[in-house]
Fold:
Amino acid sequence: MNKVYNLLGLAYRAGRITWGYQAVIRAIKGQKIFLLLLATDSSFRMRDKLMASCRESGIEVIVYGDKFTMGAALGKPPCAVVGVTDAELARLIRQHVREVGA
Structure:
């Protein structure tokens, strides 16, 4: 796994991740997310809804990886959407995503 997935796993273990559609929507409305990661194989309908919500809230969205690998990084089943609730971890993940060219 690359650094992005390692950081996601670390953030999850630290309690700084919200995952799954419903939990992420609640966190967006509560303005608790600093970065949203969407799997490239997430549904277009879900992606459009989440991107619109994030645009309204000023949250950066990165489309990265696939559901299976994202879920594995968290020790969970396949997961299409992950919200990072820690500003520093969000910055680090953003930096590593740019390094791998996504």
Summary: DSSP finds five helices and four strands in the chain. The two ends are 15 Å apart (CA to CA).
